Amino acid sequence: MLTAEFENDDDEIEIAAIEFEILNEKNTYDPQLRRLREEFPELYALHSAFFNQALRTKDPERMLYQRGKKVHKYNRDSGFFDEHPEDAPEQPVRRAEPKIGRNDPCSCGSGKKYKKCCGA
Fold this sequence. Notes:
mainly alpha
């Protein structure tokens, strides 16, 4: 039996996108998948696990959700957000230095407590 092998992650994500399209337009693709199974069994065998599941499912939304999770995981693991900073989740602001407490000496060098000097 032939199996699909992926050269890299880009191939895998492209396959997931095609699967997503097939599931999203299930009524359109069902006859085409049946024809593929009957007329080109070698090609059908390359991805038969998905094709069989897609033809049998009564709830394509569940399969769509699984493909969506796969795509999201790929985008997070691949550094997608490094390349597209506008899509990156917001990170909390971190201080370079620790916060000055109100009873600590003032950072201006006056010798007074922060609350009596610059914190007033």
